[in-house]
Amino acid sequence: MRLHFLTPALLLLGACSIESEPNPPPSTRFVYPSGVAFWRPPSAGGPAASNGYLFVANANFDNCYDSGSVVALNLNTLSTQVDGQTVTLPHLGSALPDNSLAFEDLASADESLVQIRSFAGELGMWVNPATGLPRLFVPSRAEGNNLHSVDVSLESNGAPVLTCVQGGVDCRNGALSLTDDIPASLSDEGRAGLPRAPSPIGVTVDEASGNLYVTHSEAADSPAKSSSNFENYLATVKLDNPTRDTLGFIPLSPAGYAYGGSDSVTVGAGYLYVTGRNFVAGVSGTVGGNFVLRLVDKNNPSTLLEPSLQSVFFIREARAARVVPRPVTAEELAARPNFVRERLYMLARGPDTLLTIDFEYDAVPGGAATQPFFRVVSAVPMPDGVSDMQLISRTPGTPAANSNILAVTSTGDSALSLYDEAIGQVVAQVPLVNDQNQTSNPSQAFGLTVDNPAGINAARLFVTNFGDGQVSIVDIPDLARPQDARVVAKLGTQQQRDPNQGTSVCQEN
User: Fold this and answer.
1) Cα-trace Rg, the chain
2) Residue 17, SS3?
3) Pairing assessment for the beta strands 85-88 and 79-82 based on DSSP bridges
4) Per-residue confidence (pLDDT) for residue 288, from 0 to 100
5) Which residues pair with 362 in a beta bridge?
6) Is cis: bond before 351, omega within 30 of 0?
7) So which domain of life are we looking at (predicted)?
8) Are 317 and 349 in contact (CB under 8 A)?
């Protein structure tokens, strides 16, 4: 009997010892990749000479490891074996391989990885004009609701080195919380526990103002965890000093406006365009989002506008948005010197739609913008689960050079859709699915970034496949024919999934 009594106790002690050992995220593969960014140094010689660098945020979605991570890859150093021959990633604009390449062993050096909180969202990138090197921004929805800031440098051999802005390689230490220890000077009078930005998810870099804008998918309640007195904010910090000293909050739901979560921000000449999404309202469960799009005056953030889109289209919520300037004639500027014409592209869900909306207003330098006139140009059905979007510009002097190609990811069918504005329709859907059951183990095409260099009539897209644990590389060899886009390569090994549960298997364990 004594033996049977001691054995469970010893097993318990052994289990505690194992659980206390560090279990850092792997450096050889991705783990639920979410945000992604691309950079090619100006000194690299252009796409014909360099494939550039890729930065990926790993969300560690089911907590197999101690933390999430950000990894940096020098795409010039990737290689794989094809028919016994060593093959590297082809340069943008060069001949494509007959079949998609698989670069499974990423083998990131220790200095090319930093740890962050789990449940990472988007990844924003700002190139510091003082150094010419990138700074990365990654929000996390884990405890603390942190914003992580990571600096990039290069060794003499071109190897990328990542360092937390506050120092070290564990960016969880000293990371900026968007819900804890908020300075009293920022507090909302009479509303305990506000302002806060729970579940931060989107980051937008505004180089002109020096601001980083952060959205959060859950509305903040007052007092905290009371599920009452909700508010939503646009959190702001300075790009060159992303600390509590420069933290700010712009209310998105003042008196008279319905509250809700937010997803994406895009920066116009006079307004910030903020998209709304569903949010989780504490003990009350999931509640439908109450706004799709709100405009914040850049010079007078207390001015908030809400176009009545939902009176035109029944839309449940929104995701990514991008805005571009539209031509203004000399005659229009003579009559209105501060006249602005902008086109907004916005992804909506319920039903999944790509909306194109034109705005016209006057943006007085240093002053408040006038109330805009808007019209919906088009509404194009999209695959289920639209997530991210990037614009691809055509080379001046080529056919349809004044129109854009819009690349859209969808988590539902795990595809990359290409919408050609010149002809007003989706011209290609590039499947990114894995070879597993898509019902229980979906690939989930999520984050998106693009290599669209000036003067090159081609583009390369990088798509994070959240469920696969891979990044797909899709090339458009000729921007006059986006329908010819195809997968060139996949980075990382496909993460193992439990066929019954749909969750990943912790391979290293």
Assistant:
1) 23
2) helix
3) antiparallel
4) 54
5) 339
6) yes
7) Bacteria
8) yes
